[in-house]
């Protein structure tokens, strides 16, 4: 009599699968790190005194969820823009020249 595949064996296989990570940990895109962009803008601007307020005025926000640039009018203030950039895991903050998007990611 041929051995029959039992449900127990299938369960064991499933248990082994549970030991593997279901998906790799999400890696934040380089654009998400406003601090990096801040430093980049300091270098580009040639001024070590460039503040967050001035830096954020010179950046655009690209949403990978919406696959589009976020209109600056969306942010009522620089503070809200900074908060969005800090909180959004799928948003990239890039230098105001949109051609740099490909270079940053």
Automatic annotation (TrEMBL):
Highest taxon, organism lineage: Eukaryota
Entries under InterPro entries matching the protein: Kelch-typ_b-propeller, Kelch_1
Annotated SUPFAM superfamilies: Kelch motif (SSF117281)
Region called Disordered, residue ranges: 1-23
Name this polypeptide is given: Uncharacterized protein
């Amino acid at each position: 009599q041929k051995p029959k595949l039992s449900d127990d064996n299938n369960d064991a296989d499933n248990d082994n699968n549970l030991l593997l990570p279901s998906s790799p940990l999400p890696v934040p895109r380089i654009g998400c790190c406003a601090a990096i962009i801040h430093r980049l803008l300091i270098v580009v601007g040639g001024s070590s005194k460039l503040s967050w307020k001035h830096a954020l005025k010179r950046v655009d926000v690209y949403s990978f969820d919406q696959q589009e640039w976020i209109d600056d009018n969306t942010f009522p203030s620089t503070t809200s823009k900074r908060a969005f950039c800090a909180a959004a895991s799928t948003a990239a903050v890039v230098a105001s020249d949109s051609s740099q998007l490909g270079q940053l990611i």
